[in-house]
Amino acid sequence: MKSISILGSTGSIGTQTLEIIRDNPDKYSVRALTCAKNEKLLAEQIKEFRPVFAVIKSEESAGRLAEAFPETTVFSGREGLIRAAEDQGADIVVNSVVGMAGLVPTYHALKAKRTIALANKETLVAGGALIMKTAAENGVSILPVDSEHSAVFQSLQGFDRKQVRRLILTASGGPFRGKKREELKDVKAAQALKHPNWDMGAKVTIDSSTLMNKGFEVAEARWLFDMPEDKIDVVVHPESIIHSMVEYEDRAVMAQLGTPDMKIPISYALGYPQRIPNTMDPLDLTKVGRLTFEAPDMETFRCLALARQALRAGGTYCTALNAANEVMVGAFLRGSAGFLDIPEVLEKVLDAHKSGDPQDLDSILEADRQARASAEKLLSEL
C-alpha cells in the first residue's frame, strides 16, 4: 500500500490520478489533497478519499472545509502547500500544480526526501539545475508523468544510458498543425483549446497550440535525462500513438506506444517499477491504420525555437521564458492578447533578460518576478 499526496488534485492530472487510486484501493491511499480555488470539488474529494491533510489557497475556504471535515487537517496558502509536499507520511508526491507555483513545493518535497511523480513542467523548465541537484543530494527519484518523458523513461529501462545517441520527442502538432503564420493572426482562445487528441487543462492546451509545450518538454528532457539540447529532437506525429523514442548508438530505436490517455503515464509513475492493470481501451493498430511524421514548423510556431534558444543560453533564461509565457497565455485566454503576440513578447523578454544563478532558489524566483513584470509592461503596450 502506497500513500499518495496530490498537489493540484482538482485539475486534469489530479482527477485522473484519483481515478487510478479509486480503481486500486488495495494499492493506494490518499495522504493529502490540494488545490488553488475549486472548493466544491476539493470538498467532494475529501469526502470520498478522507485525506489526512488538505490545502486550499483561501483562508476562508480552508475554514469552511475544516469545519465540514474535522478529521482532515486543512491548511491554506503557499505554506500549506509546502507542508503537504514535505509530509513524511507520503510515499509519493504527485505534483500536478499548474505553472511556476509548482517549483517551490517540488523543491521542499525533495529536501524532505519525498519521491516525486512530476507532472508540473515548470519545475524543470524554470529550475532544472537546482531541482536535479537537490534530488541528487537527497537521493530522491523524480518519476516523469508527462506522456513524452514517461515514454523516454520506459524506453530507457534495461539499457545503458551511456549508449543513448538521441531522444526523439513526439508532438501532435496541436489544433493548428499545417497552418501558416498569416492564418493564425485572428485565432481565438476557443479555437486553440480544441486539441485534436488530448484532454488537458487550459494552460497546457494553449501551450500545445503554440508548440511552447514541446519546447518546455525539450527543457524537461534535458534535465531529467541529463541529455544535451542538441541531442533532443522533436518530430510531429499527429496520431499521438508513439509517445516518444530513444535512439541508441547502434541506431536501434526504442519507442513506447499507447492510446493518448494520461492515465497510462500516471499509473506507470505510481506503480513503478511495477505496472498496474487497468480497464482502459487497448491500442488497436488496425483501427489506427497508419502512423505519420513530419518536421515541426518552427517559423510559424516560433515558441519551440525560443525555448531551444533559452535552453542553450542557460542561466535563468528558461525561467524568464516560462514566466513571460504564463503572463501571455493568461492574457490570450482573457482576450487581451493575440495568438501571435505570445512569441513576439517572449522574444523581447528574452532579449532584455539578465541571467541569474540557476542553482539558487531566490535567484530563480527573482528572475521569474522580473520577467513577469517585463511581460506585463510589454502587454500593456500592445
Number of strands: 11
Strand numbers in spatial order across the main sheet:
4-3-2-1-5-6-7
User: CA-to-CA gap between the ends?
Assistant: 54 Å
Catalogue the unreliable spans: none
Morphology call: globular
Estimated helix fraction? 40-55%
* Gyration radius over CA: 20 Å
Secondary structure category: alpha/beta
Chain-averaged pLDDT: 96
Distinct helical segment count: 16
Helix/strand order:
EHEHEHEHEHEHEHEHHHEEEHHHHHH
Question: What would you say about this model in short?
Answer:
This protein has 16 helices and eleven strands. By secondary structure, it is an alpha/beta fold.
How would you sum up this structure, described in words?
The chain is of the alpha/beta class. It is 47% helix and 15% strand. It contains 16 helices and eleven strands. The protein has helices at 12-23, 39-49, 59-68, 77-86, 103-111, 121-138, 147-156, 189-192, 202-210, 212-224, 263-271, 285-288, 302-313, 317-334, 341-352, 361-380; strands spanning 2-7, 28-35, 53-56, 73-76, 92-95, 115-118, 142-144, 164-171, 232-236, 242-248, 253-257. Strand 2, helix 2 (39-49) and strand 3 form a beta-alpha-beta unit. The radius of gyration is 20 Å and the shape is globular.
